[in-house]
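#lab-general

N.A. 3:47 PM
ok so I finally got the sequence cleaned up, no stray characters, all 484 residues accounted for. can someone with queue access submit it? mine expired

B.Y. 3:52 PM
send it over

N.A. 3:53 PM
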Amino acid sequence: MAGEAKGTIAAGHQLTAEAGAEMLRNGGNALDAAIAALAMACVCEPVLASPGGGGFAIIRSGRSGATTLLDFFPQTPRQQRGDIADGFHSITADFGSATQVFHIGPATVASPGFFAGLTALREAGATLPFADLFAPAIHAATSGHRITAYQYYLSTVVRPILTATQASADLFAPSGDLPRVGSVFQNPGLAEMFEEWARGGWLHSGIAGQILQEQKRGGHLRRADLEGYEVVAREPLRIALDGASVFLNPPPAACGALIRYALTHLERCDMPAMATALQLTDEARRLVRGDLARLLDRPMRQKGTTHISTVDAQGNACSVTVSNGTGNGEIVAGYGFMLNNILGEEDVNPHGSQDWPTNVRLASMMCPTLIETKDGNLIALGSGGSSRIRSAIFQVVARLCLGQAGLKEAVRAPRLHIENGHLDVEAIEAGIDIEELKSLFPDHRIWAEKNMFFGGVHAVSADSRGYFSSIGDDRREGAAVIVD
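B.Y. 4:20 PM
back already:
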C-alpha cells in the first residue's frame, strides 16, 4: 500500500464524498479519492453519472507540479448504421409550466469514455487497485442507499427516461413509482459491473460484450468504437490573475475559453462588474468574435452534470466533471447502468436521427478548474449546471483571485447569470446592488433564495502550511469531507 496521504474532497452527494475520503484514510492520494468518488457517483447520483457517459478531469502531480487536462468525453461512432428508425425516438416530459422533448434509444448512444477515463486517472498516479477503489461503490450498490431530496427531484425531472423501457422501470421504479425520499435504493447489477471490471477489466469482458449486443438492435456502436476510444491529454488553458495561475478546460470544450474571456474583461470584483463581463462574453459567444470562433468547430452538449474536487497533502489534485446526458432509456442488461443519449441532443444532432459527424470528440460546457495562488495555495473546483457552469466558475474564481474571498465565502456568495441579454440573480444578501443590476438589465429575474439553477460549485483547497478547506455547494446538496 502507498504511503500516507491525507487531504479533502467535495462532491455532489455525501456518499460520493465519503467514498473518496475513505481512500485518503487508507493511504491513497487525490487521484485514488477521485476514482472512488466517481464510482460511487454512478451508484448514488445515477441521473448525472454513469459508466455509460464520460467527462473531463484536470489533474496536478504533486511530484512534478505538472497540470494536465484529460478528455474522456464521449466520441461519435465511426460509422452510421443504415436503418435505425426503431433505435431513435422521442419522449415528452410534462413539468406543469413547461414541457421538454428527450430523444432516447440505442441510436442516441455515443462511445462512452468513463471506463477509459478512470483507467487513465489510475495510470496518471493513483496508487490503489481498482478492487479497493470500487469497494465503497460495490457495498452501496449491494446494500442500498437512501434517496435524498435532490436526487429524488432529479429523478422526477427525467421520469419518462427512467421508465422508458421495462428494464429501466424495473430498476428505477421497481414498485411502479420512483423511490421516495428516504427510501432505500439497491442496484446489484451495478455492483457486479464494478466487481467484473476490478477482476479483469471491462473491454474484453461481459460488460463490453453486452453493450455491443444491445447496440445491434438499432444502435451505431461497434467493437472498433470501444477498442479505438482514447483518452486525450491536453494542455489546460492558463490565465494569470493577481499572481495566481488559473487552469481551465481548453477547446474543443467551450467553457474554459468563455471563462477566460470574461475574466480578462472584468474591471472590478463586484456583481455589476461581473454582470458586465458576463454580458460581453455572452455577446462574443453569440456573435462568434475573435478567439471564440473555434468553439463552433464541433457539436456541443451540456446537460446533466456532476462534479468532484480533491487535493491531498502531497500536492496532488483532481478536479473532474462527468455526465451521461440524460440517459438513453435502456439498461445494459445485468449491469445496472444506462448508456448516454448524447447523439439525441439537439446541439449534437439538430435535424434528425443521423445528423451528427462521425468519429468526432464532442465539445462540452464542463470546466474542471485548478488554481495555484501566489501564496502557495492549491485549489480545485468545478460545477454542474449546463450553460450556467461558465458563470458559476467565473464568479467563484474572480472572488478567490481578485476579491480576496475565502473558499467557503466565494462559493456561498450570491450568483448571477447572463444569457441572451437576460439576467438571473440571487438576491440573498443585503447590499449586492440589485437596483444597479436591474437598471443594467431591464430583462431580469430576481431569485429570493439560492437555487440549483446557478450551478453547484464543489471546491477544495490546501494551503502552504498543510491546512485543508472544502465545501460542497448546498445549491445542489453538495458535501465535503476533510481527512486530517
